[in-house]
Amino acid sequence: MSTGRWSGVRLDRTHEAMTGHVERGEVPGLVTLVARRGEVRADAVGAKAVGGDPMRHDTIFRISSLTKSIAAAAAMVLVEDGRLRLDEPVDRLLPELADRRVLKRLDGPLEDTVPAKRPITLRDLLTLRMGFGFVLGPPDAYPILAAADEQRLGMGPPKPATPHEPDEWLRRFATLPLMHQPGEQWMYEMGFAVLGVLVSRASEKPLETFLRERIFGPLGMEDTGFHVPVEKLDRLASLYAAAPGTGALELYDGVGDSQWSRPPSFPDARGGLVSTAEDYLAFGRMMLDGGEHGGERILSRVSVELMTTDYLTPELRATSDSVPVFLGGRGWGFGLSTIPGGDGVTATPGRYGWEGGLGTSWSSDPNEDMVGILMTQRLASPGSPRIDLDFWASVYGELDD
Questions:
Q1: What would the pLDDT profile of 360-375 be if each residue is shown by its tens digit?
Q2: How far is Cα 239 from Cα 62, in angstroms, rounded to an integer?
């Protein structure tokens, strides 16, 4: 391995940093993968479950919000096909969302609304400016949150066991007013639930079928989907959460009885996919290569540039309560964050990627010709260790050219 790519002196920093998280009992195990200038380093540390079998490079993980970047790419495929347009109202394919009403104030009664100033567009969904999303606080903090909870729309961590099929999910969602006018607030993350329904209707295929035909198949992502087939369940890592008070790891989703062990009623483009580090490398590498993979074009170069442009204006940043919580100082493109230089990790701008709330992280860095992936399974909560930050700091600390 060339020390012009990685420092021979510092080469074990990432392994040591990740091993420390396992030894401290913060996660049972994890997989890291870094590909740079034609060389790939993969590392599996710890176990797939507490007291279980060793972690493997081909372990399958619930990738949660890393699903969004894939869903955004699928939408751009449909834009290139002429089946969708970025600034066309979604009403044509989602008539349930025509003639939206908008709350006069977030904490107001559901009947106290005004007409939406304009329809919702595909660009609104991709940039999370639809006007509906997470609000910090308990489910019943405001009438709109209580109503969303009553409709069982999945306002929280991914739960594939939600009973609603896509059309029913959208029908229920459409009974609620928007929280803000379309385009005027950045709100995580409900736009991507709607996006999944839109992609399915535009392609005239179930969401997973379209993803498999246009994304997973061409990229060779054989272990990526909305559930784990029975013959692969032995490769699925267990998912944990920290117990309140003690912080001890408690099983959140197992293997044989996992919610991901069977096809979901609602294939959730917000965070429903499972995948492996190697599969996701193919996606990250395709993005880095301007939409190409193995000589086959998945996306146009222009589509990749659109996806990796920051659309978070100063006005949106100043008025959104969600931005500091989910983005910090980063920007937002289509289904991924744009990462500025001087972020404590990279010195130059251009890196982009995203994190999943169940313990996954990905970014592609055009300046370094590098893709990095971290996969583990711990539900994010206040006070959770930032394993992803340690991962990125150690990866960039190993560079020596």
A1: 999 999 999 999 999 9
A2: 8
